[in-house]
Amino acid sequence: MAMTGAVRPAILLGLAMVIGVAYWHGAEAYSAGAPSSACGSMMPGHGFASQPVSSGGTNGGFTVTTSSSTYQVGATYTMTIAGSTNAFAGFMCQARTTSNGQLSVFTGTVPAGTQKISGCTDAYTHTSKTAKTSVTFSWKVNSASVTSFKFVCTFVQSYNTYFVQVPGSDLTLMATPTTVAPTTAAPTTAVPMTGTTQPGATAGPTTAAPSTAPPTTLAPTTMAPTTMAPTTMAPTTQRGPASTSMVSASDCGTGKSCYRDPPSCTTDCTYFYSQKPIGSTQVEIELSAKTQGWVAVGFSTDRIMGDDDVMGCNVASDGTTVIVKNAFNQGKSNVIDLSTNPAPFITNTFSSFVNGQIYCRFTRTLTTNSNRDKNLAAPNKYHLLFGTNTAASGRGGSNIGMPGKHNSIPPITTAAYTATDTSVANFNANIKVGLIKVHGFFMIIAWIGLAGIGLFMPRFMKKAWDVPKDEVAWWFKLHRPLMVTVWLMSLLGFIFILAYKKGKWSTGSSAHPGIGLATFILCMIQPFMAMIRKKLNKSQRKIFNWTHRTVGLAAHALGAIAVYLGMDLFRQNYGLTTAVLYLWAAWAAIEAAIWIGYEIKLLVSPVDPTEKIAADASIRKALLMVYAATCIVLGIVMAIMVVAHRTGSSED
C-alpha cells in the first residue's frame, strides 16, 4: 500500500533539514544580541578564540572613537563604533574604568537596531545580525569622581571571526579652570626642603624677584613624594637573551616537578613546564616552547577544557617582545581582563624569544583574592593542561587572552597534582579523546550507515518481493535488525559521551548536544512503540503507522544533522580534516536525490494497490543496492577518518 500523502511532507521536511544543515551552523550565534553572561569577558560564546586585539593596532579595521578625549561633568558627547574595511554583524559596548570596572554613562535615545543588555551595569548590543558599518551613541558623565575611563567594544564580523574588547582612547575629566588674582610678591627667602634639592643646586636662601605669576609656580612639584614610593610592590619584568640552555631538567623530580616533550629532553625541549615552591606562599613557574605564538599551562579541576586558570606567555605583535599573561578558559575560549597584565599576584617575570624559542619564568602567589583564579595552595589538586600555538597567528597584544586556538589539543595530566609538588620528573599527560572517538564511531555508523536503509525498507520495498502466505515479509526481515542495531549503537554512543562528560551538559554554543539528545530520545521511543503494534485495532493501527513513521523520519533527519555538527566540532577542537564534512555532504546529496526522486515518481505514477509485486520492483531493488552501498561505504569511511585522526603524540 502506498504511503499516504500526509506522510510525504514529513519525508520532504526531514530531507530538507538534512540538506540545510550547512546553513544551520552559521546561524548559531546570538543573532538577537549578546547575553548578560558576557558582561564581564565580552567574549562571544561561539567556541572560537578572539582575533588579535591591541591598543593602537588595526583590530580588523574596527574602531571606537569619541567626539572628545576630555569631558566635563554633565556635558553630552558621542561615541561611534565603525568598521573601516569590514562590516560587523554584532557588537557589544561598555564603558570601563582603568581598574576595569563597568560604568553607567550611556544616555539619550537608543540607536536603531540597538538594545541595552539586561543584567549588565550599562552595556549595549545589537538586536539583529544585519550587517552594520557604524553605530553612534550619546554619553555623559554625571560625577566628578569619574576622572578617567574608556569605551571597550567587541565586534563580531562572522560566526568564527570576532575581535574582543577593542579599546577606544583614554578619556579624562577636564580640569576645572581656576582664576588666581595677580599679586606682587615681596622678596622672600625660600626655605630649603629636605629631599628636594636638585643635583648641582644650592640649598641656601634664595631671593625671588617680584612676580605676577600664581604662587603655585614656586612649589617644588617636580619632586613629588610619589617618586620615593617603593617599587618592589609592582610586578617586575626582566628580559634577557633567549637560549635553550635556560631550560634545565637536571633537578626535575627533586627540586621541581616538570613536564617535558619529548620526555627524554633535558635542555632542547619542544615543550617544557616546571613548578617549584618559593617559601610557603608562592610557586615559580617556567614555560618554554618552540613556537612563534604562545605557550601556556592551565590548572583544571577535571580533564575537560573550561573554567580553567591559565598562565603563559606569548610573542607580541612586534615579533620580539614576550608578554606574560594570566587568563582563564571560559568554555572553549580563552579571555583576559584588560586591567591585569599580568595579574598583580604574578611577579618577578623573566622572558625571552630568540630563534623561534619562547621562554618565560614568573612567580605566582598560591592564593589570590580573585574569584576566578584558582587557589593553588595545598591540599588543592589540579590537572595540568599544556598548550601552545606554534604559528605567528598566536601573537597578540596584552589585552586579550592567548590569541588563536592551540594548533593541537593540549596534553592533560592523567592525575591531579598540587602546584607545590616537586617529586615528578615528567608528568604523565595525554590527550583524552578516546571516548569521543568511540561515541562518534557508533553514531556515524548508526545514522549515516544504517538508519536510512532501515527506513527505506517500509517506504519503498514492501512490494519489491513476493511474500508467501504466513511468512514474514522480506522488507520487515531487513528493517527490524537494521533499526535494532541503530537503537543499540545510539545507546552505546550516548553512554560513551556521557562517561566522557561525567554526566555534565555541554555549555558551548554548538547545537550538537541538543540535537543529539533529541535524536536519542526519539530513537529510544521507537522499539517500545513497535511492541504495542499487534495489540492495536485497525483504526488504531493507522495512528500508530503515522506516528511510527514520523518519529523515525524525524530521528533520522536530526541524527544526520547531529553527526555533521559533531564532526565539525571535532574539526574545530581536534583538527579533523574538512574532507569528512564534504563526504557527509556527498552522502546527503545522494540520499536526497534517491528519496525525493522516487517520491516524485510515486506521485506521478501511483502503485496499483491490487498488485502483489510492483511493476517497477527491479528498479526499487537497484535503487536499494545503490543507496545501501552509498550509506555503508561513506558511513564507514567517515567513521574511520574520525577514529584514525591523531590529535597529538599521546591519546587515551
Radius of gyration, whole Å: 33 Å
What helical percentage do the residues reach?
A: 25-40%
Average pLDDT rating: 79
The name CATH uses for the topology of the largest domain is Immunoglobulin-like
Distance between the termini: 51 Å
Gross morphology is globular
Total domain units: 3
Describe the main β-sheet briefly.
8 strands, mixed
Low-confidence stretches: 1-7, 9-13, 18-29, 182-237
Q: Indicate the proportion of strand residues.
A: 15-25%
What class do helices, strands and sheet pairing give? alpha+beta
**Number of DSSP helical runs:** 8
Which CATH class of the largest domain applies here? Mainly Beta
What is the count of β-strands? 25
Known CATH architecture of the largest domain? Sandwich
Please summarize what this structure is.
This protein has 652 residues and is an alpha+beta fold.
Task: Outline the structure in words.
The protein has 652 residues and is α+β, with helices and mostly antiparallel strands. It folds into 3 domains: 31-172, Sandwich (Immunoglobulin-like); 237-430, Sandwich (Immunoglobulin-like); 433-586 and 626-644, Four Helix Bundle (Hemerythrin (Met), subunit A). 28% of the residues lie in helices and 22% in strands. It has 8 helices and 25 strands. The chain has helices at residues 8-19, 21-24, 434-460, 474-501, 512-531, 538-574, 579-604, 617-644; strands at residues 62-66, 70-71, 76-83, 90-96, 102-103, 106-107, 114-116, 123-126, 134-140, 148-158, 161-167, 171-173, 237-239, 257-261, 271-278, 282-290, 294-300, 308-315, 322-330, 333-335, 346-354, 357-365, 383-389, 412-413, 429-430. Strands 2, 4, 5, 7, 8, 10, 11 and 12 form an 8-stranded mixed beta sheet that branches. The protein has a 6-stranded mixed beta sheet with strand order 13-21-22-16-15-14, with no helix packed on it. A hairpin with a 2-residue loop joins β10 (148-158) and β11 (161-167). α3 runs antiparallel to α4 (474-501), α5 (512-531) runs antiparallel to α6 (538-574) and α7 runs antiparallel to α8. The chain is globular and about 100 Å long. The two termini are 51 Å apart. The model is unreliable at 1-7, 9-13, 18-29 and 182-237 (pLDDT under 50).
